[in-house]
């Protein structure tokens, strides 16, 4: 009961049924015990997402972490909805779509139109300005400096979960210039209720996590591009020499090469610093639709049916 009082979230909306969205839905229903309304414009993606949740719950049952009843209760807390209007009564919504500013702005404009005026509007972006996203949540015709404009933008917050969400312990909390203290406090409390540790970053390109991680991955790709070392030698050097659990090229595959490129482009465009220029090889691999583990080919090959 105390966690409900702390964050006040009795129903959560999640927009985006990919790995991140379904992962966020899973920790919400399983750890925070909050019912979730899940929306994605692709029925096929919803089907895949729910299948992943079912598979993860079955794995936990098989390992004795959950009972069958607990897994069923968690699954039953997730309900799929067909449009934004169906999210109108949620206390909080988390947007978890691809790293595309215009797409996110369109979604947050819809949130402002369709959702309750007191609902928290969170984005799971891993690099894009929360302040820009918050500005798009101000209804058309309303001044950003008016009380209604401040109230609408003030409920937007960055809540950056990490992939895979059920496993990774961190959530990065980012305030827009407009975000209110109450929104930040409730978003933090919700992340804690989901079983996460919370760190805080200012609203800068990439925040703390990706401002450090993506240039590291990009440099590793450039080493491969220049022929300095093979993919195996690059990854093994970091695994055995620096005790990293996986090498940077394998990690890029797990993140998704399209996501890595989008974040690197955000860093470069947001700072105009040449040290963030994306590797040409990364750009070409995304052009070829070699996106990593999620579609079977990146720097390594994967069985997508495994």
Verbal overview:
The chain has 306 residues and is an alpha/beta fold. 48% of the residues lie in helices and 12% in strands. It has helices at residues 2-7, 19-30, 43-62, 68-76, 101-114, 130-135, 147-154, 181-193, 209-225, 231-241, 248-255, 257-271, 280-287; strands at residues 12-15, 36-39, 78-80, 92-95, 120-123, 156-161, 170-175, 197-201. The chain has an eight-stranded mixed beta sheet, with helices on both faces. The chain starts with a helix and ends in a 19-residue tail after the last helix. Residues 1-5 have low confidence and may be disordered.
SS summary, helix count:
13
Proportion of β residues? 5-15%
The proportion of residues forming helix, as a percent range, comes to 40-55%
Cross-sheet strand order for the largest sheet: 3-2-1-4-5-6-7-8
Unreliable sequence segments: 1-5
How many beta-strand elements?
A: 8
The shape, in one word, is: globular
**What is the element string, with H for helices and E for strands?**
HEHEHHEEHEHHEEHEHHHHH
What's the pLDDT, averaged over the residues? 95
Main sheet characteristics: 8 strands, mixed
Alpha-carbon distance between the two ends: 40 Å
Rg measurement, Å:
20 Å
Alpha-beta content class: alpha/beta
What's this entry about, in short?
The protein is α/β, with parallel strands linked by helices.
SSE inventory with pairings:
Layout: H1 2-7, E1 12-15, H2 19-30, E2 36-39, H3 43-62, H4 68-76, E3 78-80, E4 92-95, H5 101-114, E5 120-123, H6 130-135, H7 147-154, E6 156-161, E7 170-175, H8 181-193, E8 197-201, H9 209-225, H10 231-241, H11 248-255, H12 257-271, H13 280-287
Helix pairs in contact: 2-3, 3-4, 9-11, 9-12, 12-13
């Amino acid at each position: 009961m105390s966690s409900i009082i702390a964050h006040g979230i009795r129903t959560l909306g999640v927009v985006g049924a990919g790995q991140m969205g379904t992962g966020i839905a899973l920790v919400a229903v399983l750890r925070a015990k909050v019912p979730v309304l899940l929306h994605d414009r692709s029925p096929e993606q919803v089907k895949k997402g729910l299948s992943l949740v079912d598979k993860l719950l079955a794995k936990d049952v098989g390992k004795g972490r959950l009972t069958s009843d607990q897994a069923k209760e968690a699954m039953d807390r997730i309900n799929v909805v067909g449009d934004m209007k169906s999210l109108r009564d949620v206390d909080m919504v988390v947007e978890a779509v691809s790293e595309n500013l215009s797409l996110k702005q369109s979604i947050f404009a819809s949130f402002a139109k369709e959702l309750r005026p007191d609902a928290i509007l969170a984005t799971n972006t891993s690099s894009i300005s929360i302040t820009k996203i918050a500005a798009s949540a101000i209804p058309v015709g309303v001044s950003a400096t008016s009380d209604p404009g401040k109230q609408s933008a003030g409920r937007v917050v960055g809540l950056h979960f990490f992939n895979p969400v059920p496993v990774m312990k961190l959530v990065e909390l980012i305030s827009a210039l407009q975000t209110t203290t109450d929104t930040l406090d409730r978003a933090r409390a919700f992340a804690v209720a989901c079983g996460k540790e919370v760190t805080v970053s200012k609203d800068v390109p990439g925040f703390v996590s990706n401002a450090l991680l993506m240039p590291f991955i990009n440099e590793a790709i450039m080493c491969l591009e220049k022929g300095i070392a093979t993919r195996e030698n690059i990854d093994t050097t970091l695994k055995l020499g620096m005790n990293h659990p996986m090498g940077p090229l394998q990690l890029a595959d797990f993140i998704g090469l399209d996501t890595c490129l989008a974040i690197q482009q955000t860093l470069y465009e947001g700072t105009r610093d040449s040290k963030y220029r994306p590797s040409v090889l990364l750009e070409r691999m995304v052009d070829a639709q070699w996106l990593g583990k999620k579609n079977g080919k990146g720097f390594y090959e994967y069985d997508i049916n495994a």
